[in-house]
Amino acid sequence: MRGFTPDIALDALFRRNVATRGDTMALLDLDGVSMSYAELAGAVAEVAEQIATLHLPQRSVIALLLPNGRELAIAILAAMRSGHVAVPMPVAWRKSDLVRACREAEAAVLVTTMNFAAEDLPALAAEVAIEVFELSFPCAFGSPLPDGLVPLTFGTENARSHANAPISDVHAPGIGTLQAVSGGVSLVLHRDEELLAAGLGAMLAGEMQNGDKIVSAVSLTTFAGLASVFVPWLLSAGTLTLLPEVPRGGTLQFDKQTHLIATAGFLPTLCAVGGSAVASAFAIHFSGTEPLTAFPALNANKVVDVVALGEVCVIALPRRERSVGAPVPVGEIHAGDAGAGSPVILETRVENNLLLVRGAVVPADAIRDQEWLDTGFAAAAHGTGSVYVTPPEELLSIGTLSFNCPDLERRIRSAALVSDVYALTDPILGAKLVITSDRPAETTEALLNAGLPRVIAHAVRNADTLRAKAS
User: Fold this and answer.
1) From CA 462, how far away is CA 441, in angstroms rounded?
2) Is there a common fold for 10-181 and 191-390?
């Protein structure tokens, strides 16, 4: 197979953007606060210098418990600048999930923030640090902080003077994400070359141009988020807006240089917020894709399906028709839609009705001594030479979170008075959780008190209402 070998590291790519587009807007938050590339470089250097004072062993793991936003982007870049491995984690996870994940990743640092009203993340980080022996440095942006947390700051007056200061001679090994497995989570390390291959595929699929704008409701806690948002932003040297919550009408302005990225179910809503036509719209399928995911009224010049096969493969596929999702080609997959002349970044095959992959996109640690990686995703033929894929039955994906179904059901039933727990097949997200109860408000409160994530607690529906609709 003709492979793809990038010749630049992500940190070097960011430095190049700073040098050539320093005054260009790099980050724009939902609250209207913006940062140029020069200002962002100063913030990254500041945080990297503070990380350096912790005197961590080379290539340590820095876990990031941060909402989708400016601080998350800065922390990832600062970890890379310091020569360490950034591992973003979902803010919806409960304490036990974070403890398990930090132990699996052997995290030495956990970075969080005071700037998130929905949860007391610093207190949670302090509790996790008590449970995890390796986690020596719980840190947080903002103030006031609980005792024991190391403060992190950026935006001081002399930040720009340190923007290009070298922090570490050690090249960052990559960025880690966490994959749900039976009984827990496993760490998947994505090296720069894998991230660049996947990001190039997404960028070309959406026909992103230099200086374009990316607006993402998908967090950078997944390979799909890194590949379709973070890396294309670095490659295009444009403006990135990370959405930590559902935006209100009028809070965002889209134009023909805007690329929207969201889970397939949320994409039409996000498109409608800006009111104007956009360059491309990316539908992220965390649980596989589905041939009937239609977007007939989507106000976008181009629609791209991004199929996330767990945390080990991301495939960006330009959609030919609005009414039919893009199937996965069997054989060589080229970056974008440029045909045989573009780089080959992935190769697929089907064996025993399962999709196997290999190539530049697939993490080397996942392949190891194998020639092909079995994704565990079922492959159903679609015409000649392409397939649609569906996830393993034992895993349920809710948004960007994945759970083992029997374990999740046990935890829910033990926490509250619940009539039923089941997964609905959803043509967009693959599956969604529904919890029925005769006392939904009390059940939601009980699930929250038991430490279950909000995304689960708010899936409770009134059993009587559902019965009435069914009849």
Assistant:
1) 9
2) yes
